[in-house]
Specification:
24% strand; 343 residues; 30% helix; 10 helices; alpha+beta; binds zinc ion; 4 domains; 4-stranded mixed beta sheet
């Protein structure tokens, strides 16, 4: 605090002045114009009690410049705000935002001039993104949610959606025309038809083309029983249906290397539609007969991406009995339900 605080002497090079977002429309020159008149001593007392020193009156009789005792930065405030609320130091706020960004691995590039709650950040992958300060603050404070990947770079995410689509024979065109965030617009590579599809369905390949009629629900599918061991938690099974259970195991469920997992049984189903119906009915039965073996939603959130359709391994014999019967009912090939040696 070596500056001369006398209101009628300006420093040679103007100090940086933080302006609250509500006042940013006012030209800078207004804030640089000292208002003649002493600072009332009772204002100075209030400022001191709130961690500031009034170093100037500017623009008009209602505004003061507050110097933060913590960081030394100057912030313009209304005298009214000083009297009735805890003024925010622009310097401390900026420092906090820089630190929050650093904790997340981001770099805060600049404030968004269009919206005071947003800033522009450089993400670890190198892409830039416009993010809400509050969101970055939460991410810095709480860290990523258990079992989740944290913040997704929108650019990288779009690239991933494109490659998921390409793997299923579709091209990602852009956002959903009906503005559902879980859908996108896609073009079928083999016929050129464009339609909206749920992202989850592109990932699992449960997509039917409305034009050429290629349809997952009419194509053969399989119900699989997947077994996995979670350290210190025990053995579990997961049921599901897929045209390609092995790829589902590795890629979609996001099972980390520390969890031993394999596809135990595969029951061929004549169509995806039958597989879906059979699986749904089985889940209903298991929930009713073995409620204690159903794994609660968040119990394995750190280990596996999917939170439902997971059971304790001890009900496996009942699951197999049911699936064998269901398979026999639709008269499928003799390899049904044969144990597999590995996943
Ligand atoms: Zn400060
Ligand atoms: Zn990125
Ligand atoms: Zn098509």
């Amino acid at each position: 605090m070596t500056d001369n605080h006398s209101p009628d002497r300006l420093p040679k090079k103007p100090r940086r002045l933080h302006i609250p977002h509500r006042s940013r429309h006012v030209p800078d020159s207004e804030w640089r114009r000292t208002y003649p008149g002493p600072v009332p001593p009772q204002w100075q007392d209030i400022a001191a009690s709130k961690g500031f020193l009034i170093v100037d009156r500017v623009r008009d009789r209602n505004h003061v410049v507050l110097r933060c005792r913590e960081c030394g930065a100057d912030t313009v405030q209304k005298a009214y705000v000083l009297r009735t609320a805890q003024p925010i130091c622009g310097g401390c706020l900026e420092t906090r935002r820089l630190q929050d960004a650093a904790k997340c691995g981001f770099t805060l590039l600049e404030r968004d001039e269009m919206h005071h709650k947003y800033g522009h950040y450089r993400l670890p992958c190198g892409h830039a993104a416009r993010l809400q300060f509050g969101r970055v603050e939460r991410l810095a404070r709480e860290g990523k949610a258990a079992g989740r990947a944290g913040f997704h770079c929108p650019t990288c995410y779009a690239a991933r959606l494109s490659s998921d689509a390409a793997a299923r024979g579709w091209t990602l065109l852009g956002p959903d025309p009906e503005a559902n965030p879980n859908y996108r617009s896609y073009r079928h590579d083999s016929c050129g038809h464009t339609q909206r599809i749920a992202i989850a369905n592109i990932i699992t390949g449960r997509v039917g083309c409305e034009q050429c009629g290629t349809c997952w629900s009419a194509a053969p599918s399989e119900i699989y029983v997947l077994a996995f061991e979670v350290p210190h938690k025990g053995s579990f099974i997961k049921l599901g249906y897929s045209r390609d259970p092995e790829s589902r195991l590795r890629y979609q469920l996001g099972i980390p290397g520390s969890v031993e997992a394999r596809v135990l049984y595969r029951f061929p189903m004549r169509t995806g539609h039958i597989a879906q119906k059979t699986e749904k009915a089985l889940h209903g039965k298991l929930k009713q007969r073995f409620p204690d073996s159903v794994i609660p939603c968040n119990e394995l959130a750190d280990w596996i991406n999917v939170k439902t359709e997971i059971y304790r391994a001890d009900i496996l014999p009942h699951v197999l009995t049911y699936l064998k019967a269901a398979t026999a009912n639709q008269q499928t090939s003799p390899r049904s339900g044969k144990p597999r040696s590995s996943g």
